[in-house]
Design goal:
Blueprint lengths: L1 H33 L9 H20 L3 H36 L8 E3 L2 E2 L5 H19 L1 E5 L2 E5 L7 E2 L1 H10 L6 H14 L1 E3 L3 E2 L2 H14 L9 E5 L4 E4 L5 E3 L2 H13 L5 E4 L3 E3 L5 H7 E10 L5 H14 L3 E2 L4 E3 H5 L10 E6 L2 E6 L4 H13 L3 E4 L26 E3 L6 E7 L5 E9 L6 E12 L5 E5 L7 E5 L4 E11 L5 E12 L5 E5 L1
Parallel strand pairs: 1-6, 3-11, 23-27
Antiparallel strand pairs: 1-2, 3-4, 5-7, 8-9, 10-12, 13-21, 14-20, 15-19, 16-17, 18-19, 20-21, 22-25, 24-27, 25-26
């Protein structure tokens, strides 16, 4: 029994297993029906393995769907990185080239100075070369001026020679050396294509050359010294002269032109011999000794003068005696003779005041000024100031007098010659003549001058004039001065040759002497 129970159980298990197998078979059949038929001859087990692999792949595909986008991104990244690395490698290679280019120590390609290509040359080499050239140029400017034993050397420094070659070379060397490596490289590249030319400025101040040559010309030029009079002895009437000496002259304009021409010739170290001319004096001592002496004299009569008048005339003549008038100097009678005072020895003597005869200190010295006037005219000196008397005087003709009165009325003349003149003044031994001589260089060719005067018109006396005074009895009438005629006169300066013949004449001055009626004092 027990056996049959086991068999029953086995049968039931077998039946269950068979049922399960049948179900599986049915499911596979359904699945197989959906698939295409396998090739004949395929083994069942191989087909089953393939089916299992296919099923695993399908399961794997369904589970890794994100792998494709990741792959694409990774490829993109790898591509970008590769391109970046490639570009950076190229940039690095380019940078190496640029760095090697800008690291060059000499002048970069395309740089020229004064038309000379300096590419590849070092800074010191170019500076040395141009420095030597500048030395040669400076040497071309040097010049020596010579005159006798004297010499003057003109150097570039004297003319303030200037050059900017150091600055130009430094500027040219700095091209391509500022900024970043790339900026420097680009600058060098453009410079190589377009070239960079530099010029040097140099020169000197020719106005300084003019100053130097003018100074030298002035140093080598001086006037000739004429022989001249340095003294005159009024007693011996002898002159003392100085000797003459030659002068020298250098044409400053010509010296400058010659010096500038040599400097600009480009040949340095030349010597210029200065042309110095001799300047002869105008007056030699030997000629002055022959031509100096008494030029002329004038004399007027003092006959009839009282002692006081003679005293005054002598005092004025003594003051004038020996007076020297230098060339161009103006003589003033009042300035030299001075005020006529009692303390100076002058006395009361006859004189004119308001047309009347009166007494005053220094009366009579108008004869001295009148005599001097005639002497000066005959010496051919220039009359500056002269007035006639109010009425004619007895010791000269009308028109030949010169009145003076302190301080208003003066007589003046100017020495218009090139040499000093001296006055010799005094009275004759008998004191009846007032004599004034002028000494100096005599008139040329024996010429002499005389003064001639003539009356051109007679003026009728005016009405009588009355002076009322209490010093006379009332109604008493006393004649003070009789009526007189007046005159108009003209004086001539007449030039005579050595034979006394007239060369020419010219009007010297015009004079008017007023007419006057009788003058009476009347008691009141």
């Amino acid at each position: 029994m027990p056996q049959s129970g086991k068999d029953t159980v086995k049968k039931k298990s077998t039946a269950k297993t068979a049922a399960k197998s049948k179900a599986k078979t049915t499911a596979k059949a359904k699945t197989s029906a959906k698939r295409p038929a396998k090739k004949a001859g395929s083994r069942g087990s191989a087909g089953a393995g393939k089916r299992r692999a296919s099923q695993k792949r399908r399961k794997s595909s369904k589970s890794a769907w994100w792998s494709w986008p990741v792959t694409i991104i990774m490829l993109f990244i790898l591509t970008f990185v590769g391109l970046f690395v490639s570009k950076e490698m190229k940039n690095y290679e380019d940078f190496k080239v640029m760095r090697e280019t800008v690291s060059f120590e000499g002048f970069y390609p395309g740089v020229s100075i004064e038309g000379v290509d300096v590419s590849g040359r070092s800074l010191n080499e170019v500076l040395t070369s141009l420095g030597d050239h500048e030395k040669n140029l400076r040497n071309q400017i040097s010049l020596t001026l010579v005159c006798g034993s004297q010499s003057w050397k003109i150097t570039p420094d004297d003319l303030d020679y200037q050059t900017d070659y150091v600055e130009v070379v430094s500027s040219a060397y700095q091209l391509g050396r500022e900024g970043s490596v790339r900026e420097r490289f680009e600058s060098i590249r453009r410079m190589k294509q377009n070239n960079a030319s530099y010029s040097i400025t140099r020169g000197y101040d020719i106005s300084l050359l003019r100053l130097i040559t003018d100074q030298i010309a002035d140093e080598l030029s001086w006037d000739a010294v004429n022989a001249t009079v340095i003294d005159f002895d009024v007693d011996t009437k002898e002159f003392t002269f100085t000797n003459e000496s030659d002068g020298r002259y250098v044409d400053a304009d010509q010296l400058y032109r010659d010096a500038l021409s040599m400097i600009q010739s480009g040949v340095g170290g030349q010597t210029l011999v200065i042309a110095q001319e001799t300047v002869e004096p105008t007056y030699y001592r030997r000629d002055l000794e022959k031509s100096f002496g008494q030029i002329t004299e004038a004399r007027t009569s003092t006959s009839g003068s009282n002692n006081n008048r003679i005293n005054n005339i002598e005092l004025a003549l003594k003051t004038l005696n020996g007076t020297c008038i230098e060339p161009g100097e103006t003589f003033s009678f009042n300035g030299v003779v001075g005020q006529r005072t009692k303390d100076r020895g002058y006395k009361m003597a006859g004189a004119f005041a308001d047309g009347l005869v009166t007494e005053e200190l220094g009366g009579g010295i108008c004869q001295v000024s009148t005599t001097l006037f005639n002497a000066v005219v005959k010496a051919n000196l220039e009359i500056v100031e002269r007035q006639p008397h109010s009425r004619p005087i007895g010791y000269v003709d009308e028109g030949k007098d010169a009145a003076v009165s302190w301080p208003s009325q003066d007589f003046k003349f100017t020495n218009n010659t090139e040499h000093p003149v001296y006055l010799v003044a005094g009275m004759s031994e008998t004191k009846n003549r007032c004599i004034i001589s002028v000494y100096g260089q005599q008139l040329p060719d024996g010429m002499s001058i005389v003064v001639e005067a003539e009356t051109t018109e007679v003026l009728e006396p005016e009405e009588d004039r009355y002076i009322y005074t209490s010093s006379l009895p009332t109604g008493y009438k006393e004649l003070v001065e009789a009526a007189r005629e007046g005159y108009r006169a003209v004086a001539y300066k007449v030039y005579l040759d050595a034979n006394g013949d007239e060369i020419r004449r010219e009007v010297l001055c015009y004079s008017t002497y007023a007419a006057a009626g009788a003058v009476y004092k009347v008691g009141q």
